Model the fold of this input.
Amino acid sequence: MKRTLMEILACPIDKHHPLTLLVFEEKDEIIEGLIVCPECHRWYPIRDEIPEMLPDELRKDAEDLPFLKKWKEQVPEDIVKNGKPFNLKG
Ligand SMILES: [Zn+2]
Done:
């Protein structure tokens, strides 16, 4: 995704804007990263250049937790332990 997309993205749950962007891999566009809502502590993966802004009921922990685990050294501890809808606490 392009960085400028952040100007229009809002949290699908509470419509909060602006959201926080974490970039893990970037070439012409952001390839892998995380979008964090500072309001509800939800995190959304950017995978293969696509930001996945899905509501909780459409998300699967089996797909999202491995992504969080892969990048956890670069994710703020608060999100790793208390992020929604899934986290790595315990
Ligand atoms: Zn939110």
